[in-house]
Design a protein that fits this description.
Blueprint (H helix, E strand, L loop, with lengths): L2 H18 L3 H11 L2 H17 L13 H15 L11 H5 L6 H17 L4 H11 L3 H4 L4
The structure holds protoporphyrin IX containing FE (HEM).
The site of protoporphyrin IX containing FE has 20 residues, from α4, α5 and α6.
Length: about 150
């Protein structure tokens, strides 16, 4: 092994130590940062609500909903899910959605609206996907109809 190979080997080991030793909390909060922290998430949620209320596939389901309250709860929840320093004060997802008869297609429609909102807020595509992936496990609590 020559001098350069040795140096390259050391650099590789140092990089892998750095990556694997990054605390989970730091990895989580980097998504919060990537979404633009509190103000970025606030804009994303406001735009998501606009998209939902313009989405013929799901808008009727929100006719009786206090959208101002929903937006506030979504801001808290998205902040928590992205690893930010917030508290979610709303109810449990399964409890909230159990009587609404939500289908998989409706869930996907809302996820699409969120993606459109993030696009409008200029969130990079990779960050959009990471965030959608964090929300995806909620599907089993929200969708109750085949
Ligand atoms: C990832 C997907 C979703 C997330 C993160 C989410 C999140 C939330 C949150 C945080 C609340 C407020 C909870 C509370 O009142 O304490 C809520 C309420 C509600 N959600 Fe969802 N939701 C999702 C999907 C859906 C879908 C697909 C629909 C229908 C198409 C839907 C319809 C509703 C309605 C109608 C309410 C208000 C219920 C009420 O007024 O009491 N949600 N959701």
């Amino acid at each position: 092994m020559n001098k350069y190979q040795t140096l390259a080997g050391i650099a590789l080991i140092a990089t892998s130590i750095l990556v694997t030793s990054t605390p989970v909390s730091a990895q989580e909060s980097s998504l919060y940062d990537a979404l633009g922290q509190e103000s970025g998430i606030s804009r994303i949620v406001d735009e998501t609500v606009v998209q939902i209320l313009n989405d013929a596939r799901i808008k009727t389901g929100f006719k009786e909903t206090n959208m101002k309250r929903l937006a506030q709860l979504l801001k808290e929840q998205f902040c928590v899910v992205a690893g930010g320093p917030c508290k979610y004060s709303g109810d449990d997802m399964a409890l909230v959605h159990e009587k609404l008869g939500i289908t998989s297609a409706q869930f996907n429609a809302l996820a699409e609206d969120l993606q459109t909102a993030m696009e409008k807020c200029q969130v990079p595509f990779a960050v959009q996907n990471k965030f959608i992936a964090r929300l995806a496990p909620m599907k089993r609590d929200i969708v109750t109809v085949k």
